[in-house]
Amino acid sequence: MLTHLVFWIFAFLLLIYIYSAAFDSWELGIKVVLMLLPVHIIYFYLLQYFVLRKYFSGKYPAAVFLAFLIMATMAVAYRLTEIYITDPYIFDFYSRSDPDFTWSKLEKDRWQQLISKGDFVNAVERCNVVVWIGVTLTLFAMWHERKNAILQAELNFLKGQLHPHFLFNSLNNLYALSLNNAPQAPGIILGLSNILRYVIYECTADRVLLERDIEVLKDYIRLEQLRYEERLDLNLNIDVEPGPWQIAPVLMLPLVENAFKHGAGETMHHPWINIELRVAKGELWLKVSNSKPDPAPAPNPKQGGNIGLKNVRHRLQLLYPEAHTLHWYDEEDCFILEMMVTLSSHPKT
User: Fold this and answer.
1) pLDDT at 307 over 80
2) β-pairing, 283-291 with 245-247?
3) Is there a contact between 81 and 35 (Cβ–Cβ < 8 Å)?
4) Smallest Cα–Cα separation from 44: which of 140, 143, 123, 127?
5) Per-residue pLDDT tens for 194-237?
6) Residues with Cβ < 8 Å from 230, sequence gap 6 or more?
7) How far apart are CA 133 and CA 30, in angstroms?
8) Which long-range contacts (CB under 8 A, 24 or more apart) does 185-190 make?
9) Distance (Å, rounded) from C-alpha 233 to C-alpha 252?
10) Residue ranges of the alpha helices (H) in 229-289?
11) Eight-state DSSP code of residue 332
């Protein structure tokens, strides 16, 4: 509502400037615009209500036909308003200061004025001045709104993929421990509960505090350490400069999870994982490297392949276009992954 009000105030001022310049009188310009403004408003909302709806529903021929029909109808309405209201008023306005004032177009009868080609073309031109500015702005706003809706739906789909993916992996870990009545099981259940609370409830926002995301990442690493105990050689190095940094939620977790699942989880002897995380000058750098099993197992399509990596890469393309890098190197004896993200800062309150 406010947007429409602002637009019509802008249109009103623009029309006043144009008509006042043409009549060389601000008073006459304002009064004539007030008489013609309802035609502009009706014209605009007819286009918005009938034409744009058909256009965005894919009915392009019907939209074009309606646009020309409405344009012709409103041009006639504009001419009738001029013939019966504004032109007589303009004639009276100038006659008051110049009794000898004459206007040749008013010497014709009203039907001749209506079918005058030159006046009709001028009417088409004048009644479209502000209307198509409004239509263009509306088209851009609707296109932007639809683009955001599609992007949000795609991100929600990716998040929806991530949640069960993480949950299934964690439950598999818990199942493996429960088979042996492992004492670590209660700690894992508690930690898993904390992580799921973050993933399910707090990750609905587009951005979360980096500090909170790292905290959950540490919780996940701690859970995995409980599972592998001394069998895993884990090096974790986190160096984050203080700052109100924000990041899209759960970008780092699948990358670290991938190292545990396909590195430590499949390596029988002396598995190792190195995780380096640093933030400097608003850029986050994450490097995760892990040992590989020897020999490497054949990929199992039923396990979903590298769904975590594909998910993260797709989310980075949507959320950080031209503000990220993601590379991985599948070497003979190790897997190395590097990610860079340009962070946004949390606005100060």
Assistant:
1) no
2) unpaired
3) yes
4) 127
5) 777 887 777 777 788 899 889 888 888 887 777 777 788 899 99
6) none
7) 20
8) 187/223, 187/226, 188/223, 188/226, 188/227
9) 20
10) 253-259
11) S
